[in-house]
């Protein structure tokens, strides 16, 4: 059994976790920066990087204290090395390098998307490769056939906005606050999803990809028309996103006959309407459905530690001069 320290700092969550290769999350610590970014209605990279510098050290200490372990007990140190806001990524990666150097333990540089992609295997020990994954976060919206650790076949991506980005922009347009996804979901619960006619970009088309920019423009028009409440627009928007995600995933299932399960991960996977509709789609296709618990959907360090554990077990460690990457496709 291996013990892994995982660090995450690619966006606006600072996180540290200690996790075993037996899926035991000994501790996971997370500090969000919502209050610091809320006045700007979105994440400000410079503010995020400075906040990571301040909080990451104390979080690592707290994670060790809670787990009862020390750096000497750790087998490998995993950190997000990209993609993300480069200043923040560098804070986590440089910290991991320093700890690796000081303790003579191996470094595992984790692709943040791989963290999301493997997180369902942390949540469910029986989930085997290959599985069809809908990865929906603030920066990405992809359908991937996950064939193994480090083996991802991309079946679809977004041609404009990511799904989470659409939620965040809609929240901003409707004045619902920041972060946008949970705010839209709360407002949608009080609205009628049939009330506002919104487009479903690419629905039913042979093209496998996603598109959300047109939907965002339609939300703006609906708001400016002034005929519907923010709750009704939010509910109609959420329904349109869910319809698009479900339709595109249904199409991808035809390209992924070997998939043993339908899996959803990433921040938008925390949305109950998204989860419910994909679960129904999996049932329709006769497939298992796996979605991580909500805390594991949004950014955290346990998933980075887990991806680190999977890579470490496969002998995939990295040199200390590995660079942080703002862009890094899976
Ligand atoms: O995975 P994540 O925490 O960070 C990235 O890697 O991007 O995803 C964050 C995204 C944000 O766009 C956020 O608005 C969205 O996930 N999100 C949600 C919900 N919770 C978070 N979107 C819809 N419904 C939610 N409940
Ligand atoms: Zn993420």
UniProtKB/TrEMBL annotation:
GO MF annotations, alphabetized: tRNA N(6)-L-threonylcarbamoyladenine synthase activity
EC number: 2.3.1.234
The organism's place on the tree of life at top rank: Bacteria
Main location: cytoplasm
Enzymatic reactions: L-threonylcarbamoyladenylate + adenosine(37) in tRNA = N(6)-L-threonylcarbamoyladenosine(37) in tRNA + AMP + H(+)
Cross-referenced HAMAP family: TsaD
Cofactor: Fe(2+)
Top EC category: transferase
Binding site for Fe cation: 112, 116, 299
Domain Gcp-like span(s) in chain numbering: 25-306
Pfam family, one: TsaD
Protein family: Belongs to the KAE1 / TsaD family.
Subcellular location: Cytoplasm
General function of this protein: Required for the formation of a threonylcarbamoyl group on adenosine at position 37 (t(6)A37) in tRNAs that read codons beginning with adenine. Is involved in the transfer of the threonylcarbamoyl moiety of threonylcarbamoyl-AMP (TC-AMP) to the N6 group of A37, together with TsaE and TsaB. TsaD likely plays a direct catalytic role in this reaction.
Residues engaged in binding substrate: 135-139, 168, 181, 185, 271
Keyword Ligase: no
Cofactor, how bound (note): Binds 1 Fe(2+) ion per subunit.
Designated name of the protein: tRNA N6-adenosine threonylcarbamoyltransferase
Gene3D superfamilies tied to this protein: 3.30.420.40
UniProt keyword list: Acyltransferase, Cytoplasm, Iron, Metal-binding, Transferase, tRNA processing
